[in-house]
Design goal:
The protein has 343 residues and is mainly α. Helices cover 54% and strands 7% of the residues. It folds into two domains: 219 residues, 3-Layer(aba) Sandwich (Rossmann fold), CATH 3.40.50.620; 93 residues, Tyrosyl-Transfer RNA Synthetase (Orthogonal Bundle), CATH 1.10.240. The strands form two sheets. A three-stranded parallel beta sheet has the order 1-2-3. The chain has a two-stranded parallel sheet with strand order 4-5. α2 crosses α13. The structure holds adenosine-5'-tetraphosphate.
């Protein structure tokens, strides 16, 4: 123990860190399962929301799309209502400390810890194993670095990320035990009944940016115009029953969950409104509710994207501010682990 002050950098509020990878256009799942919760809780915390562009390199990517998606994610954060007085929005690769700390953490992480990660096992299943980049295996160390650099107290994530936060705590503890108390242990902030939105084409699979690249009908993007949203819902998979029944099968349950989540109505009201209705009526109602919820977001998004130069300036300024904290944490780790020149 070497007496570092591990409180949150003088801020009276606990620090929250979270991020989304610009691995494709953001969809309803990203909004209802993540960004909307960040917006709702932003006054309670001192927030850092990152566009984790280095994570988007763990699967094959197109450079032009990566740039565009990076700007898109940042603009969507703002358009959805993340405010710059409570939150800092920045792009991960603008702060090299993320990669540097990730390397040290990677070297301290037993391979078995990473091979056991569910996400790695899923994304590298079968013959994929021979083709996927090593980054897919080691990316939890980069995620841990993202979180640990900012002395984060809470990480709001979906249930699927719990394992990565546990790893982050384990690796932070390993560093602290072996070299001295230099890292703050974060906690996962997992909503009790978070919305888990499934693919419109396949209600057994989570709506995902990557799957939407192969089949655009899989997801509703936050930037989709109304006519596209209507078409996507019109083609959404439903059940074999002739009309909406309760309890519903997976396809209808997904549509109902989207409707309920977007309109914030009760389960009783949902059943009263849709029991016995045709799938067409349900699909139209869901489409119109989603269009109405996205309208103000899309208006703000267009405004923000009309001046990309300003957006990039804001992101750069935010990165310059945050780099001070990130570099201080990195220097502490570099010093205690024996790297020269960090006193
Ligand atoms: N379908 C979903 N329902 C609810 N929440 C979701 N999230 C993602 N999909 C759904 C939440 O959004 C955040 C985005 O995290 P990410 O981009 O880092 O990675 P992810 O979870 O893997 O998201 P995607 O869209 O599925 O991307 P790809 O296809 O690139 O892997 C997280 O908080 C997540 O819980």
């Amino acid at each position: 123990m070497n007496g570092y002050d591990l409180r949150t950098m003088g801020s009276p509020k606990p620090r929250v860190f979270s991020g989304i990878q610009p691995s494709g256009g953001l969809h309803l799942g990203n909004y209802l399962g993540a960004i909307r919760n960040w917006v709702r809780d932003q006054d309670k915390y001192d927030n850092i929301f990152c566009v984790v562009d280095l994570h988007a390199m763990t699967l094959p990517w197109d450079p032009k799309l990566l740039r565009e998606n990076t700007l898109q994610v940042a603009a969507v954060y703002l358009a959805c209502g993340i405010r710059q007085d409570t939150s800092t929005i920045f792009v991960q690769s603008r702060i090299p400390a993320h990669s540097e700390l990730a390397w040290i953490l990677t070297c301290l992480t037993p391979m078995g810890w990473l091979e056991r990660m569910t996400q790695f096992k899923e994304k590298s299943a079968g013959e994929q194993r021979e083709r996927v980049g090593t980054g897919l295996l080691t990316y939890p160390a980069l995620m841990a670095a993202d979180i640990l650099l900012y002395e984060t107290n809470f990480v709001p994530v979906g249930e699927d990320q719990r394992q990565h936060i546990e790893y982050t705590r384990d690796i932070a503890q390993r560093v602290n035990q072996r070299f001295g108390q230099v890292l703050t242990l974060p906690e996962a902030l997992i909503p009790k009944a978070g919305a888990r939105i499934m693919g419109l084409d396949d209600p057994e699979r989570k709506m995902s940016k990557t799957l939407a690249q192969a089949n655009p009908g899989h997801a509703v993007f936050l930037t989709d115009p109304p006519e596209v949203i209507r078409k996507k819902f019109a083609r959404a998979q439903t059940d074999a029953e002739p009309a909406v029944r309760f309890p519903p099968g997976p396809g209808v349950a997904n549509l109902l969950q989207i409707y309920q989540s977007v309109t914030e109505t009760t389960a009783e009201n949902l059943e009263r409104t849709f029991a016995g209705k045709s799938y067409n009526e349900l699909k139209q109602a869901v489409a119109e509710a989603v269009i109405a919820a996205l309208r103000p977001i899309q208006e703000r998004y267009r405004e923000i994207r009309s001046d990309d130069a300003q957006l990039v300036r804001d992101l750069d300024r935010a990165a310059d501010r945050l780099a001070v904290t990130a570099n201080a944490t990195l220097a502490r780790v570099q010093r205690v682990t024996g790297l020269l020149g960090h006193d």
